[in-house]
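ok so i was messing around last nite and threw this chain in just to see what happens. nothing serious, just curious
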Amino acid sequence: MPAAIWTGRNAYPEKVAADMATALRDELGLAEPPSAVTLPAESAGVPAGSLLPPRERFSGMPAPTHCLVYVDAPVPRGFELRAPVMSGRSGFRRSLGLGPLLYAVLLTSKVPSRIALGLAPARGSAPWEGDATITDRLNLDPRLLDLARALTPATAEPDRHHTWQVPRRLTIDPHPHGSVLLVQTLHRPTGHAWSLGAALVLDFAAHVETALG
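result:
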């Protein structure tokens, strides 16, 4: 998987944040890039009132976290995104690389308790865990499960020398105004560079709302 890497004079946090915002603008067809800001590596990784949970202290990535990028996008439907930016070297030059992406999307549907995708969903199984009334609806939709699998890869190979083990994370949590979809995913290769997968996440959110009614 081609990694999103910034080297040399491009290896600074503001450049990473700007490129992420531009990538989101392009893949979602927005008129303007969404707001993307950098946060210190030692911070909780979220501003006050965020739908995202505070960051975990151990990232599991094969390099130290240099900073975090937080995105708050109001359109085409509201979502938040956080990504750790890892520091390292590319040859003799310092480099920054993009870690796993955590999305939060507010859904209109309500759930009584946490609904989660199982750690190892398999075809023919009932992978959604939680309240039976809710999971029965989700398990009846094979398209939803296909989208969930596509969004939550467990491993990635940014180069020939490293393999990331990325925890599977896809949950739907109660919220006063509906529920919150949390999806951990990875950037993806495209014909020219890489994608943050926002369109897939928003498509999945719409499918969840349809399934829940």
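not much to say yet. The helical segments are 13-28, 132-139, 142-151, 198-212.
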